Amino acid sequence: MTPDPSLLVPLALPLLIVTVGYGVLCWIRPFRPCRHCAGTTRTTGRFTGRPRPCRHCDHTGLTLRAGRRATNALRRLR
Ligand SMILES: [Zn+2]
Question: Which of 11, 13, 43, 52 has the largest CB neighbor count within 10 A?
Answer without folding.
Answer: 43
